Fold:
Amino acid sequence: SYELTQPPSVSVSPGQTARITCSGDALPDQYTSWYQQNSGQAPVLVIFRDTERPSRIPARFSGSSSGTTATLTISGVQAEDEADYYCQSADSSGTYNVFGGGTKLTVL
Amino acid sequence: EVQLVESGGGLVQPGGSLRLSCAASEIRFSNYWMHWVRQAPGKGLVWVARINSDGTSTSHADSVKGRFTISRDNANNTLYLQMNSLRVEDTAVYYCELAGGPLDYWGQGTLVTVSS
Structure:
């Protein structure tokens, strides 16, 4: 079955830039979304269609995609950004959705 | 305010069945694709199934195919997940998700525990 690969953890200091990657063979053909999840809460969409940001999400969140890798970038990281982040996409046929394993962002 | 409210979770023995419901309010439910996503305790998100806006097309993850069935009742703004032949590894919080580009809403989740 199709898989998306994320690093288990990323650590940054406040004010720095955090980059979380997501790798998958079908990413050139399918959009990627990114979700933020705080402990015990439902996920929140922060990026959709590779690069688009819902209006309620701060501008410091951005997304990009090149080849088989999608990247979530958080510029000027704040303490409140500490959370788990998941990429989500679909297989090449678009039939099956899949989430990456998740990345725990730690703000030092 | 848009709300998605799941119900139907609980404790069930291996091999048993449950039907989850997700009631939507304050949104034109029939316009949107819907998903079920689950999360085992301490683990990551796992996509389970999706259904298109009018219910004519569905897809299920390999891990639940043949055991779980997603469906919807647009007249009553409700999404369902029929879960049969439940296994211990199906234990998780089950979320419903309404997805439509920038619009993305999740329920609070309902816990399904499969144990003898």
Observations:
- Chain A touches chain B at residues 1, 35, 37, 42-45, 48-49, 52, 54-55, 84, 86, 88, 95-102 (CB under 8 Å).
- Chain A is about 0% helix and 45% strand.
